[in-house]
Design goal:
The chain has 99 residues and is mainly α. It has one domain: Methane Monooxygenase Hydroxylase, Chain G, domain 1, CATH 1.20.58.1000. It has 3 helices and no strands.
Length: 99
């Protein structure tokens, strides 16, 4: 993983508040799933909620990929674009390999 630099603006900086709001909502959904398991709710209901959380995380990930492509790849200096594109494709590969 590439080290983060706090002085550098990120592609998602403009939408950071929305991103954090979505992630907090997802965190609440995960806590809800935990409660469902504690209450021994029906398996399919739990799986349905897990699927919803995965879809929400996928949406966040796609937004971050888009922000990265727009800001960090297209906006990169010409001699950095190949490296930034490789980073992007590696991230896409990691996301596709899950499950």
């Amino acid at each position: 993983m590439t080290p983060s630099r706090t002085s550098e603006a990120r592609g998602y900086s403009a939408t950071k508040d929305d991103l954090l709001k979505r992630l907090r909502r997802i965190e609440g959904q995960v806590r809800g799933i935990e409660g469902m398991v504690e209450e021994e709710r029906y398996c399919i209901d739990v799986l349905t909620q897990i699927s919803a959380v995965q879809a929400a995380l996928d949406k966040v990930a796609l937004g971050l990929l888009d922000d990265h492509a727009q800001h960090c790849v297209i906006g990169a200096a010409k001699d950095d674009q190949v490296e930034k594109t490789q980073e992007l494709m590696a991230a896409v590969g990691r996301l596709m390999r899950r499950g």
